[in-house]
Each structure stands twice: as C-alpha cells, then as structure tokens.
Design a protein that fits this description.
single chain; 50 residues; alpha+beta; 2 strands; globular; Dipeptide ABC transporter ATP-binding protein
Length: 50
C-alpha cells in the first residue's frame, strides 16, 4: 500500500511496507545521510550495508 502524498504517515514513509520497521520508524522521519558513499534515509541502514 502506497502512502497518501496529501496525508503522509508519521515517521518513515516506508514503515507500513518495510519488514524491518520498528517503533522508531513509525514515529521518526530518518535523516538523509552518507553511509559507505551512498545516501540513505533509514534508521537501520548499517544493518544492510557493510
């Protein structure tokens, strides 16, 4: 299910369809940051890049 662009959910835009989403994902928007020369916006990116 895609989020409504007029009424986006709180937190990360992908938390409703991400299998790794946590309570933090539901409440906080992740900041865009550089990780391993990639731009990421995920609270858990370190778990997947390495």
């Amino acid at each position: 299910e895609l989020p409504n662009p007029l009424h986006p959910p709180e937190g990360c835009a992908f938390h409703k369809r991400c299998p790794y989403a946590t309570e933090r994902c539901r409440s906080e928007v992740p900041e865009l940051r550089l990780l391993d020369q990639r731009q990421v916006a995920c609270h858990h990116a370190e778990q997947f890049l390495g």
